[in-house]
Fold this sequence. Notes:
Radius of gyration: 21 Å
Shape: globular
CATH class: Alpha Beta
Oligomer: single chain
CATH topology: Rossmann fold
Helix content: 40-55%
Order of helices and strands: HEHEHEEEHEHEHEHHH
Number of helices: 9
Distance between the termini: 55 Å
Strand order of the largest sheet: 3-7-6-4-8
Amino acid sequence: MTAxxxxxxxxxxxxxxxxxxxxxxxxxxxxxVAVVGLQFEAKIIASPAVRTVVLGSEPAPLxxxxxxxxxxxxxxxxxxxxxPGLAPGACVIASSISDGTRAFATDKAWTKSLALSIPxxxxxxxxxxxxPILEVTEKSRLHIRHGAVAVDMESxxxxxxxxxxxLPLVAVRAVADDAGCALxxxxxxxxxxxxxxxxxxxxxALGRQPRELAPLIRLAMRTGSARATLxxxxxxxxxxxxxx
Length: 244
């Protein structure tokens, strides 16, 4: 090996080592962890300061995915309304999160900051569940029993993981199906485990239940209102994350 070749190899090794250290540095950079259930929610909230986790698409439990450098956890996305009067598109900030048996406190200072930044947000308890709540009567029962104003399938998972790691926790949700709106199996047929939408699955389900078309359109409009709210929150949340 000539001296020139050895020098070139050393320089390349040094450069490769620097690249490796840079990749490692980026991987452990402090971040807010955003816990979502759908891909479009992840796209809305993602930023260099936010690491998104789509529940259902990851092989490991959320509690095992949090890093020592993580600064906090936010549950973000659409939700179902439980409290009468919460219209589609309404923003809900959790005052606490319950899984039905335990209540997890949200971070007071962070929650207050969000409440001051988001106009007309409703502050109240959120209930986390493992399965979709389909019936209006069940929504009413859960509202009365738990006092929750909204329900989703991610907040309780986020709350448990944040509690285990001692991280600040908040939840910001937008109402899609309100308290008077039932969910249909046709709509659920369009949700893949990775949080993406299976249009073919929805069409196949509609073929079997064509009477669900009109309710599905109404639900899509409600979900569109919730999605628009989440999009409007994006610049507000980015500013809040920088100051947190």
